[in-house]
Sequence to fold (112 residues):
Amino acid sequence: MNNNEKSMPYSNMENAANFKGFIEDSYRSAVVWANDHELLHILQPLVCGLLVAIFGYSLVYLDSNVPGVSPPSPFSPRKKVMYYQQKSSVHLGYLSALGAGVVIAVLMYLDI
Fold:
C-alpha cells in the first residue's frame, strides 16, 4: 500500500450505523426536550399555518401568466413590473394565501 491509500478515510457500514444512531438519538432528545417545555403545542400551529401559506403562495405564483410578474409576487422588484402602477400593489391571491395560513394557525390554537 502506498501513503495515499493509508491516509484516505473510507466509509463503512459501521460508521453509517453510528451516524444513523447519532441522528436518531439527537432527534429523540429534541422531541423529549420540546415536550418537557411544551413547545410542541406552540410550534405545531405556527408550522402548519406557515406550510399552508407557502402552499397557497406557490399555487398563486405558479398559476400566474408569467410567474412573479403577472400578477407580481410581493417580492418582485418594483422597477421591473408595470403592474405596480395600479392602485393596489399586492395581488389578492397572495393575501388570501397568507390569510389561509393565519386562519389555520388560529384554528389550531383554539383547538377547533
In short: Helices lie at 3-7, 13-36, 40-63, 92-109. The two ends are 68 Å apart (CA to CA).
